[in-house]
Every structure is written in structure tokens, then in C-alpha cells.
Amino acid sequence: MSTVPLGSFPYFSLPDGYKPMNPPETRDFGHFPFWTGTELHDVEGKLFMSFIDAKDGKTYSDYELKKNIEAVLKQAGAQQLTDSKIPGEVTDKLPEDVKVGMNTGLGDVYNNPTETWVIRRPDRQIWVHFVNGRNSASWTILETKPFVQSASLLPADALKQEIDKTGKAVVHVNFATDRTQILPDSQPQIDAITTLLKQSPDLKLAVNGYTDETGAVAHNQSLSEGRAKAVVTTLVSAGILPDRLKAKGFGATNPIAANDSEDGKAKNRRVELVKFQ
Domains, the chain, ranges and CATH? Predict the structure, then answer.
């Protein structure tokens, strides 16, 4: 357990002569599969991801960078879990959202060793993934954070009243972090939508997916589309005819709340049911 004083997230700065290759990416809530030396351990929390490069006029030294990163992590009370190459049969199983959407923090794990460190604090853990190459590096820093449910159940009659009144209804379906998998605690909401459609056989609904503004634009677009399709697929499997539904993703566009707070971001991560003819 470490009680070393730390500053604000992401806690660590790069050594002199080194800089982020591109603007770092931060996510208020996400997940990352950390390599423990024997398996991938998926951890949820606040994320910081960045490529690392040498500043102009500075010669990149993988040895120098490695020594500096290891020194500052040890100073913070971190314990190293592994410094080893992830086997090909394991990297082949990396989730697509990590390989594509989190490449900034993942780095070249296919050709270089991965260092995994963890700082255990009384109230949280801080995980660090560091991959060092000959000409650049990548790292991910994650502070563990409990999942907070943002979904609220609207029963079938409330959904119908809202759609009859405004032509649409907003539902907050919970999905696995940064994925399209609908979590079991949202099944009652899916059941309510199913009941609404079965009680109103002429009703057709567009299922529109939205995210908050955390993450890259292209990633948010793809994620929102995948989540909308997941809802439609689940409704079809419950007996709703496919021609009564259509799915579309809108990423972080059209927010219904400010993205400067956790509550606002939770409201923006939503599914809208829009009536169409």
C-alpha cells in the first residue's frame, strides 16, 4: 500500500526532452486490459493515454526513457507486475475497441515488451501500461473508479405517453464500458420497449445512439452505431419485426447536457426512440 503524496491525475510527467507525440487522450470512465505476465486483466476507471516522442533536437533513447519512467513509478510506490512481451495468441484476442479505439495508449505490444505497474492506495489503485520501442513509446495510466449506473427505467406506458406527446423518448441503457454489450441491469428497460412495440403494432421506432464527448470523434461514432444496433438486435430477438426498427449512431453530437460534469456526460450517453412512418 502506497501513501506517497501524489498530485492530480494523471500524476506523472515525462522526463526532460520528451513529449506526447499527439494530444493525449483522456476518458472519465473507460476500461483497459492490463497484461499481468500471465493474462489480460481488464480494469475500469479514469484513463489517460499517450504516445511518447522526443522533442525537436533531442535524440530518442529508449533506455533513458525506460530508466526515467521506472524511477518515477518506484518513487510513487508502484510495484511492477511484469516486463514481458504479450504472446501472439493473447494479442490476437484483444477487443477491437482496444486495438483500434485505444491504439494511442496500447502501443506496439506486438513487437515490444509491455511493462505493467500498479500503485495500491487506500481508496483506489493506479495502473500503468508502458510499451517502449526504438523510436517512440506509449503509455496508459488508469485510476480505478467504480461504475455508477446512469440508466433509469421508463415503463411501457410512460414511453408511450412521451412518444405520443413529443414523437420520441430518451432511455438510458447501460452498456459495458466502451463496448456495445447491453448490461443485464438494463433488461427491464429493453423489456418495456418490447412491451410498448407489442402493444402498439403500428408503431415504428428509430433507435438512435449517442455518447458523451470523451474519446475520438470516429470512435464515438462507431460506438454509438454499434450500441443502437445492439438494441435493435435485442428487440428483434424478442419478436419485433425488423422493418419496424432502424438503428443509427450520432456519436457525441446533439448533447442534451453539458459535458463538463459526470452527471452531464451520463445524460448524454443515451438511446433515443424516435417515431417514424
Answer: 18-144 (3.40.1000), 156-276 (3.30.1330.60)
